[in-house]
Amino acid sequence: MIKRIIFFIFFLYFLALIQTSFLVHLKILGIVPNLVLIVIILINIFTPYYQWQSIGLSLLGGFYLDVFSLSCFGPNYFCFFGFYTLISLLIALFIKFIFKRHVQFSKR
Amino acid sequence: MKTIHKIRVIVPVVLLIILFLVLNLTNFSDKTKNFFYSISSPIQKTLWQAGDNVSDFFSGIFNAQELKKEKDEIFLQNLELIAQISALKELEKENKDLREALSLGLEKDFQLVLSQVINKDISQDSLLINKGSEDGIVPGLSVITSQKTLLGQIGKVYKDFSEVVLITSKESSFDAKITEKEIYGVVKGEGNLKASLSLLPKEEDISEGETIVTSALGGIFPPKLLVGRIKEIKKTDIESFQTAELTLGFDLGELENLFIITNF
């Protein structure tokens, strides 16, 4: 488990770098997919709801996005350091909630 | 048991809130960002160049027809420009002679600082460059390309890095003029790498392809920097002014080296 967490710490860091330095050149219909958020969603879907490490990884992914997103200018309520961390946390908690309440896995 | 569970949830949440309050209310977030940019900039520079190459490769494949059309247009423009250059060379010689005669001395050029792009924001119209307060960069300085095309101005400045707010940012607006006709207007950023020239007098006849340069009126940018060309003109009976959509003078994919004007 620790190996997997360490892997994801570096993996999310490199994804954030790829997102901000590489993918910005390759817009698809004017849109750049947010790889970090996609991976956060996948981590939370494929980790059992009772394992809370995925919440930590989501926070870390959001933190990386906050670090590598440049400041916004002018009045904007969503303009604060921690915006992506908050979004990632909410996504992770939402997925955990859905899986805990509405999805049942067979015990084999 | 339930209390322990509650504490285990509440304590991290409270710690997280405190951490982000500290990061937002002090300049600790700037230091954090500067630290991450410092350790990541070599990788970011490599990734930026790789992305640029990949983008060039794919644009060559997907836009082959458009490129051919563009090539033909450029060829014709090139012929026109060669003719203009020879005419300008004559004028330059004449100008030089006149300057010498009037003892005006050499024209003062800009004082420039060279920098490189290492990051572009995913949601904002801004760039990150590898020069910061240590290199004498302060907010508000103008940023241009090597072709003296206006790119934007310095926004936030970190110790070793700075953010460039592009002219396409929604917060950007400055005075500009159409060179051919001396018509003044205001260039406004519309976000998503788009900008428009507004407040153009309705009675003026403006055509597509005309060149826009900065004017000395606003005092934000040095005068006569290329902004772009007129792409489309929007004129309605209701509004007292006409607006023009702009084709910008720079291509974000091609940007690598930028110049910051420290004195003009």
Report the largest inter-chain contact.
Answer: A-B, 27 and 39 residues
Q: How many angstroms separate the termini of chain A? A: 21 Å
Output mean pLDDT of chain A.
82
Strand content of chain A: under 5%
Strand order of the largest sheet of chain B: 1-2-5-4-3-12
User: Rg of chain A to the nearest angstrom?
Assistant: 15 Å
Low-pLDDT ranges of chain B: 103-107
Number of DSSP helices of chain A?
4
Tally of distinct domains of chain A: 1
SSE succession of chain A: HHHH
Describe the fold and architecture.
The complex is a heterodimer of chains A (108) and B (264). With 108 residues, chain A is mostly helical. Chain A has one domain. Helices cover 63% and strands 0% of the residues of chain A. Chain A contains four helices and no strands. The radius of gyration of chain A is 15 Å and the shape is globular. The mean pLDDT of chain A is 82. Chain B has 264 residues and is an alpha+beta fold. Chain B has two domains: 67 residues, no CATH class; 161 residues, Rod shape-determining protein MreC, domain 2 (Thrombin, subunit H). Helix content of chain B is 37%, strand content 31%. Chain B has three helices and twelve strands, in the order H-H-H-E-E-E-E-E-E-E-E-E-E-E-E. In chain B, the strands form two sheets. Chain B has a six-stranded antiparallel barrel. In chain B, a hairpin with a 6-residue loop joins strand 10 and strand 11. About 2% of the residues of chain B have low confidence. The chains are: A mainly alpha (108), B alpha+beta (264). The interface between A and B is medium-sized, with 27 and 39 residues.
